[in-house]
Amino acid sequence: MLSVLKNPVYRKLFTAQVVALLGTGLLTIALGLLAFDLAGSKAGAVLGTALTIKMLAYVGVAPVIAALVERLPRKVVLVAADIVRAAVALSLPFLTEVWQIYVLVFVLQAASATFTPAFQSVIPVILPDEKAYTRALSLSRLAYDLEALVSPALAALLLTVVSYNNLFLGTTAGFLVSALMVVTIALPTGEQAAAVGSVWHRTTLGVRIFARTPSLRSLMVLNLTVGASTALVLVNSVVYARDTFGLSNSSLALALASYGAGSMIVALNVPRILDRTGDRTLMLTGASILTVGLLLAIPMTVAAGAWAGSWWFLLALWALMGAGNAMIITPSARILRRASTDQTRSYIFTAQFSLSHAAFLITYPIAGWLGALGLVWAVVALAIIAAGSMIAARVMWPAPQLAPEPVATMTGA
Averaged in consecutive runs of 10 residues, what is the pLDDT profile of the chain (413 residues)? Predict the structure, then answer.
C-alpha cells in the first residue's frame, strides 16, 4: 500500500490531505462541545441542523463550482479553498450564538465542496494504474480512519490542559499547512479538458451519467445506507456520551475513535479483499453490516439507562459500523473511475460528492431533530432507511456480466 508514496506528487498531496484531516477532526470534536455549551441536551438538534446546512452547501454548491472553475488551474482552486477554510475555522472560537454556527458552517463547507472533488479527480491522473490507484484509495481511507483515532486522542489530551476553543486553532493550522503543501506541487495539466457546453450542461452532466449506469445507480442508493449510520454516529455520539451516559468530554473522543478503528481495519485489507471478491460483493456486504448495526442500536439505546455494559456495547457497535462504511466508501472511487473518461472524470466525482451528501441531507435532520424527541425514534428511522436502501442496491446492481458498462462522454451522457 505504501508503495504509492514513492510518487512525489501523490506523496505531497497525501500529506496535504492528512494534515487537513487532522485539523478537521479537531473541528468535529470542538464543534460538538461548542454546541453542547450553547444548547445543552439539545446539542444533537444543533449539530443536526449544522450538518444539514453542510449538506446543503455540498449538494448545491459543488456541481456549480465544478462547472464554473473548469478552466482554472487545480492548484489555484485547492489553495484558495484551503485559505477560506482556515479563515472560517479561526473565527469559530468567538461564536456566542447558535445562528452564527450555521452561517460559518455554510461558508466552511462551501469551500470544502470546492476542494474535495477537485482533489479526488486529480488522483486518477497522477496514478493511472488501477492497482496503484486502489492502493491510494485504501491509503486515503486509512488516513481518514487514522484521523478518527489520532484526532480524538489528541483532542482528549489537549482538553486536559486547554479549553475546547483552542482546538479550532489546530483546525486553522491544518488547513494552512495543506495549502502550503499544495503550493509546492507541480500538478499535471492533462486532467483538465476544455469546457464543453453550457454551465447548466456541465453542472448536470455527472448526475446524468449516474442515471444511465447500473453500478452508479446502485452507488447512489448505497449513499443512503452510509448516510444513515454516519448520521447516528456523528450527530448523536455527543448526546449518548454526555447526556445518556453522563460521561466526560473525553468519552465523545473515545466513541469517535472506536468508529474510526473499525473503518481502519477494513481499509488496511481492502486491496487484498477486492482481489478476491470484487467491488460489488464487498460494497453490498458493507451495506448489510450497516443495516445490522443500526438494528442492534435500537435495543442498545432502549437499555442504555439500565444495562451497565451498554456503553461498551456502543463502542463495539460504532466500530462495526465504521467497518461497514469503509467497505462501501473505499471501493466506490474505483466504480467512478471505470465509468469516466478524462473529460468526464471531474463531473462524475463531483456528482458522487453531491449525491452522497444529499443522502446526509436526509439522515442528518432525522438523527438530530427526531433524536431530540427521543434517540430511539431516530435509531428506528435510520435503521429503516438503511435496510430499504440496502435491498434496493442489491436489486439495482446486477451481478457482473461479460459486457462492460457504457462509459459516457461529455456530449453523450
Answer: 76 82 74 72 70 74 68 80 88 78 80 77 77 74 63 67 75 87 74 49 67 82 93 87 77 83 82 82 93 93 75 91 90 79 70 79 86 89 95 84 51 52
Least Cα distance to 181 among 18, 356, 61, 365 occurs for: 18
May I ask the CATH class of domain 2-185+197-396? mainly alpha
3-state SS string for the chain: CHHHHHCHHHHHHHHHHHHHHHHHHHHHHHHHHHHHHHHHHHHHHHHHHHHHHHHHHHHHHHHHHHHHCCCCCHHHHHHHHHHHHHHHHHHHHHCCCHHHHHHHHHHHHHHHHHHHHHHHHHHHHHCCCHHHHHHHHHHHHHHHHHHHHHHHHHHHHHHCCCCHHHHHHHHHHHHHHHHHHHHCCCCCCCCCCCCCCCHHHHHHHHHHHHHHCHHHHHHHHHHHHHHHHHHHHHHHHHHHHHHHCCCCHHHHHHHHHHHHHHHHHHHHHHHHHHHHHCHHHHHHHHHHHHHHHHHHHHHHHHCCCCCCCHHHHHHHHHHHHHHHHHHHHHHHHHHHHHCCCCCCHHHHHHHHHHHHHHHHHHHHHHHHHHHHHCHHHHHHHHHHHHHHHHHHHHHHCCCCCCCCCCCCCCCCC
- The domain segmentation of the chain, as residue ranges, is 2-185+197-396
In the prediction, which pLDDT does 254 show?
Answer: 84
Which pLDDT belongs to residue 142? 67
Residue type, 43: A
- The pTM of this model reads 0.68
Q: What is the pLDDT of residue 188?
A: 64
What's the pLDDT score for residue 144? 64
Cβ neighbors of 372 (< 8 A, separation 6 or more) are 42, 44, 45, 48
